[in-house]
Amino acid sequence: MSRASTLNRLAGFTLVELIVTMVIVGVLAAVVMPRFMGREGFESRGFFDQAQSVVRYAQKTAIAQHRNALFVVITASNVSACYDAACTLPVIHPSTGAALTATAPTPVSMAPALTFSYNALGQPSFAVDQTITLTTTSPGDVNRIFNIARETGYVSHP
Fold first, then answer.
1. Which of 57, 58, 69, 150 is the most buried (most CB within 10 A)?
2. Distance from C-alpha of 114 to C-alpha of 67, rounded to nearest angstrom
3. Region 15-25 average pLDDT
4. CB 124 within 8 A of CB 155
């Protein structure tokens, strides 16, 4: 075998290698791409984290400012921290300067609707532990819950 014929054989890919590569890329595109194209699951999880953060920050603010009433208002579409029950005086977000609130994306809702306050010890005003449920209608996404403990005000998720 001459040197020229050996170089020609090593210079490219075989048809089988190209077809196998195309099949692998096709399978990855069919399985992985829909996960990246649908943002609802990511937005739902982001809202879940924001909602918990608002409640935690409200508790920490009540403790730090020695306030006997710092309110958390939870509706079907948002959660806010305020200095009054009507939420006309919102707590200010420390980095943005806007009202401390989290708004649910379109396929997500929260229940139950609830207004409660934290005292200067960080204890919530309700009599029993509360479970907040975030429900989503987005296909492939899951419903999420977080709990607020009555005695300590601790926010957790199972």
1. 58
2. 20
3. 93
4. no
